[in-house]
Specification:
By secondary structure, this protein is mainly beta. The protein folds into 4 domains: about 130 residues, no CATH class; about 80 residues, Sandwich (Immunoglobulin-like); about 90 residues, Immunoglobulins (Immunoglobulin-like, Sandwich); about 140 residues, Porin (Beta Barrel). It contains 5 helices and 30 strands. A hairpin with a 3-residue loop joins strand 24 and strand 25. The longest helix is centred in the first third of the chain and has 22 residues. The chain starts with a helix and ends with a strand.
Length: about 500
Amino acid sequence: MRSKRMTAFLVLWLAVCLVSSFAQTKKWRQTGANTFARVKGQIPTGEVMKMLADKYAADIKVGFDQAGEGGLFLPFMDALKAAKFSDKAMPVGSTFPWMMFRVNNKVRVWHNVEWAGRKPLEVFAFEVERESKIYEFVIPRPCGNIALAGVREAKKPVPPAVCAVVVSPAKANLGEPITVDMSGTQNAASMSVEIFDALGQKVGTHAFTPAAPKWQTRFDRPGEYVFRAKAVNAEGLASTNPCGAKVFINTPPVCKLWTSCLPCEDYVGKPITFDVNGSTDVDGQVVKAVFEILDAGGAVIDTYTASQKPLTWQKVFNKPGMYTVSAVVFDDMGAASANTDPCRLSFEVTQKKFFYLAEVGGMLARGTYTGYLFGRLGMLWRLVPDTLDFVLTMGPAFSLIGEPWKVVFLANALANVHLGPAVFLGAGLGYSTKEQAVRKNGLDFVGQFGVNIFNTYRTAGSIFAEFRMPILTADRPFDDHHKLLLGFRYIF
């Protein structure tokens, strides 16, 4: 039992010693002894070492296997044949994870080697890349040993930035938002865009980041704008692919307003035409107009939208007064004309005051209430529109039975008072010639009651009843000289 314990202790002690011996750094003080590959009579050069790759390939393979880096053999041989060497001086104290050399014509490998010579070690240096790592190898002059100088992670190549920009919409009105989108850009650390107007002058710039690749802007002047974008990768290299876009900002239309009357005398009840067909749009066409009428106090009394040509509006004013008409035109992109355009006019609408009139109807003349047909012509003055008129009429009345009844001439001078838009009362003086030879001519008091059938402010028609009584005199008694009339009046 004791012998078994002793044996286990000896095995453990031996293993510790071996590990300690293996991990101990080996001092290397001179070159020229135990060389891996010697070239007689000359110092090795890069081209010489390139030729030695084929001659010592099998031995190099053995060395890599002993170093535990068999997978590096083929990449090492490719790099050695490529002969991309650089001259380098390794300072005293430089260490190498392992070094390949030759002892008694056999390949050996030392681990943890330190250069302990008196001066820097002159070497050929080159790199081998394998599986995202860079292995730096050196070959000391002139011994030709192969040593691993270090290992580092391979720097991943930074892909070039590919710029992409989308600007929308491609056509817009003044003040509408324009979206600049660079989210399609690839491999960019930063992005930017410059904006130029039609004259080539820079009017704006903006910087983007991959986290914020979108931006909105607006334009307050019409015309074409060019967006020139670029992207920069992590190494600071700018993209080289074409990257740009254009935006067209629509020019608003220019309004021009025409009216069929200015001033509008005697135009109450008569249509007035407002016309904006003379409006223009330099980059499109005018497709719509909105009209607005304001009274003298600035209140809107009517509006109208013309959505197809001709862009006109006929408006009838039923009251006289001062009015203002304004118009706004729109182009095929929906842009409106500016408020400063000459599309606002003030005008006065006056009402017609003098009219002609004609009256026809039937009359009953007192005595036996004999029937007559009468017709009168006259004139009408609107002293106060829709309130007070003055009427003069005159005309004959013809008896329906003949003798002894004579043709009677009737004349009136009346004042009509309107009780609303349809009803009026009239009163005044009249004159009647005699109905029979035995009667007398004379003055009458005339009263009327009427109802308007229509009224366009230019023409009107009404039915009226009229009562005539003599201004009492001894020779014109009421019983024999009063009359009743029912007629139709047309004013024009």
